Amino acid sequence: MSSEKKQTRVKVVVRVRPTLKDGVKTCVSTNNKPNTVQILNHRNIRENLMYDFSAVYDDTCSQQHIYNNSIKSMISKSLNGQNVSIFAYGPTGAGKTHTMLGSATDPGMIPRVINDLLLTIENEQKTVNDKPQKDRWQYTVTFSYLEIYNEKVQDLLEPASVDLPIREDGDHNIFVAGLAEKEITSFEEFKNYFGPASNNRTVAATKLNDRSSRSHSILMLKVKKNAMFPPNREFQGKIYLIDLAGSEDNRRTGNQGIRLKESGAINKSLFVLGEVVDAINNNQPRIPYRNSKLTRLLQDSIGGSCHSIMITNIAPEEHYYYDTYCTLNFASKSKKIVNTNTTCLKQQTSTSSLSGNTSTSGEAAQTTH
Ligand code: ADP
Ligand code: MG
Predict the structure, then answer these.
(1) Cβ neighbours of residue 346 closer than 8 Å, sequence gap 6 or more
(2) Closest to 80 measured CA to CA, from 199, 233, 229
(3) Separation CA 201–CA 270 (nearest Å)
(4) What DSSP string describes 147-166?
(5) What is the overall mean pLDDT for the chain?
């Protein structure tokens, strides 16, 4: 990527999930200033750390609201042949799968994107004959589903295909050689493929969560757009929908042997993802895509002119404090120290109330990973 080319920034938003039980202590506040998250500074309990993001969705925000505000606009990009990536980052238990997949009664971003995409195409087709010939297009949507587990690409539609190679064609398009692709024309068709494929995901127990995801699950939609009349132009856009493996500090999860190897692979790919997002957002000339399978796969779909969003999921409970702190540091490269007395930050002792009104020190704290 040449340094003259401006990279499209990766948008970083935060979603705070609700507490799952009544009466638990929380350590996250979102209501001091729009689009900020505050947590206690464990190095100095008189202070809070305040992080800025493109958007912050608090525990009252619905799937619909997040979809409409941060995701929906990406559908038209893919229909115009652009690549899009949407990923959920955060520790196990913070709401990544809820955000991406959701449930039958409360669908997440994946079903909403697919529904909206197919519906938009259906509506386009209904009026296609009313348009001038040059604007008449035919669309084909295909779906692939894979996971990256231990730095190996595994096809979830064809589970026999393991460790598939990632390649680049002459036009710098990245593809997985031998990956299954299924054409879908309705949401029902998608569900028929997706249900059995989901069961093929690699999940294993850790101390933190019984069915903690130890792999990055990646759903890819290819949107092909063919002109119905000469000169028969053709475009192709891709949408990646990614539920990343848990970002928790694996030293705390009692991992040994195979688990430890997995942890190393997870930590490395998430670390590289952080470096890639950083390099893109600082418009650096060299983006280290090749340093992990995950970022290599995303090379043509994050940065450049692609549209990407990282939904950073955090859990509000006190016992998630360290994971929340690390996650916010990963997601935001800037934070301020704020002296405040926020009622939501229950760990604060009476000493913090000495500081009185909210004031921003303007001092940028060191970012740690
Ligand atoms: P992760 O995939 O990050 O490990 P999950 O999505 O499995 O986390 O969420 C952990 C638990 O919290 C699940 O029981 C999920 O249903 C619940 N949960 C997560 N986010 C929300 C939310 N916004 N509203 C209600 N429940 C949520
Ligand atoms: Mg999950």
Answers:
(1) 25, 26, 27, 318
(2) 233
(3) 19
(4) EEETTEEEESSSTT--SPPE
(5) 85
Between the alpha carbon of residue 326 and those of residues 64, 141, 333, 345, the distances in Å are 28, 38, 11, 17
- If one residue of 61, 96, 98 were mutated to test the ligand 1 pocket, choosing by the most ligand atoms within 8 A of its CB, it would be 98
Neighbours of 176 (CB within 10 A): 20
CA distance 115 to 19: 29
Provide the H-helix boundaries in 107-186: 109-126
Q: Is the pTM of this model over 0.95?
A: no
Q: What long-range pairs does 338-341 form, CB within 8 A, spacing at least 24?
A: 338/32, 338/38, 338/47, 338/48, 338/49, 338/50, 339/46, 339/47, 339/48, 340/32, 340/38, 340/48
Number of Cβ within 10 Å of residue 334's Cβ equals 10
Distance CA 287, CA 276 (A): 6
CA 312, CA 276: separation in Å to the nearest integer? 16
- Per-residue pLDDT of 144-160, as tens digits, reads 999 998 889 999 999 88
Which tens digits make up the pLDDT trace of 274-285? 999 999 999 999
State whether the beta carbon of 20 lies less than 6 angstroms from ligand 1: yes
Mutate to test the pocket of ligand 1, among 14, 17, 67, 212 (most ligand atoms within 8 A of CB): 17
ipTM, two decimals: 0.99
How many Cα atoms within 13 Å fall on the side-chain side of residue 56? 22
Instruction: Write down the pLDDT at residue 150.
Output: 83
How many CB atoms are located within 10 Å of the residue 160 CB? 6
* Span from the CA of 98 to the centroid of ligand 1 (angstroms): 5
C-alpha to C-alpha distance for 84 and 236, rounded to whole angstroms: 11
Helix segments in 222-299, DSSP class H: 258-281, 293-297
Cβ-based neighbours of 59, under 8 Å, separated by 6 or more: 16, 17, 18, 19, 316
